[in-house]
Amino acid sequence: MALSGTAAQAQTVTSELFSSRRASQMTPPDSPLRRTAAELNDPLASPKLPENEQPAPPRTGPIPKYGLPAANGAAETGYDSLNRKRKQPKYYPGQARPKPPIGPGSPPRPAIASNTPLRLSIPPSQSAHKTPIPPAMAGTIVGQPPRKRLKIDDDPFGAVGDYAGSFLIKSAVELRGGYDTNPGRTSVPRGSPFYVIAPEFVAFSDWERHAVVADLRGSFTGYTNTFPPVAGVASSAPTNLDRPDFIGHVDGRLDVTHDTRLLGQARLNVATDNPGSPNVQAGLSRYPVYATFGGTLGVDQNFNRLQLSAGAALDRTVYQYSELTDGTSTSNDDRNYNQYGGLGRVSYDLMPGLKPFGEIVGNIRSHDLLVDRNGYQRNSSGGNVRAGTSFEFSRMLTGEVAVGWAARTYEDPRLLPLQGLLTSASLVWVATPLTTARFFATTSIDETTVPGVSGVLTHTYTAEVDHDFRRWLTVIGKFTWGTQQYQGNDRFDRFYSLSGDLIYKMSRALWLRGTLRRDWLDSNLPGNSTASTVVMLGVRVQN
What's the CA gap between 320 and 330, in Å, rounded? Predict the structure, then answer.
């Protein structure tokens, strides 16, 4: 009995001692680390001291604690060094979930077949060998608004250009070579190889108000063969057929107010008479070059939907001396003239995409010499009236079309008045994103030196279709036809041209281009009809 009480008492003491030791070894919740033996034996550090036995706080204040506690700033999900209960991460539908780490308790890996090649290296990720994007450009900085999506480039192989101040400048040069079966457009064809050098320069202003645009394009065509006169054959082609060509203009707009704008243009055109033209003299060693330069100044005023435009124009045409095969030269001063004119236009914005207009143009041509080489007075006055509309239908069909009447009277009573129907059009039809069709129509009254002829009324119509087999491979088909009516003469010409171009765009800066063209001139006067075939291959370098 005594033995039993002693054993029970000893068992109770042992249990209390074990419980107190286990409690003393447990990590308190306010400590991130396990306590050492010295801390366990320190009565001041024990949390189980009664209240009356707790030490008084120090007079200097609480002892400061330095550093950051464990797991400071940890998120609600993921790993925590204090082994607290964490929230389960949420995944969006279709989002890939991370694979569990490999270690004890991981699911077994699938067995590798004996015939499967062993991969010795880790495959590169999707971002390998790619230039890293700064966070500011990627739009991943917290608080930064998302980056604005760039506009789709309509022409991925077009010239990019360079900025010079506030002007965007684009330049290009084309180098072409080929063969022309009849470069002089004579009744007896004689062919020659040729080359073409064609530079281009375009500059646009990038201003909030006002605007300036410069468009300069030129070319020089050189022929390697010469064409000496043939005995017994009447030919109007010079011995040297080299010809320059340049057309350039600078347009400006000054926005005075929201509804008032001042417009201006300076222009220059350098060229020669067309091969086969009756204006070409016989016995020339080369084509005489002429230059037409001038300018226009006008104003546009809007009254709600009504727009009024008015302007004045001044142009001068000057011919150089004609060089003959016998070494002499003749003057072309009788072909030099000044042209003074004005224009007025009224248009009304009837509805979105439809804007009808009416236009009137008048001018006076005054020659340097009162009488030309054949004894005719070439001074004249005339103009044209036309009406039409500009339109835009769902951005698929845009342009302008007009019809009217053109007339011109001459001081010499022997020269009959020249008049006829005027047609003008500029249409663009975007049939598909890869196919575009264009149509152009122009009418002009040209000067001539043919005796008894007042002038030439010329109508020209052009249809063109561009198709991209790929963005870098484009084919262009073009057909041009027109008429030339010589007022005061029985001559009436019809001309046609059919061409095909294939363009291979190697990059934004380099294009390859091949051209095949066939030209016809059908005249009602015998001996004036001609035909020619042109083949060209070239390269275009642009910036």
Answer: 9
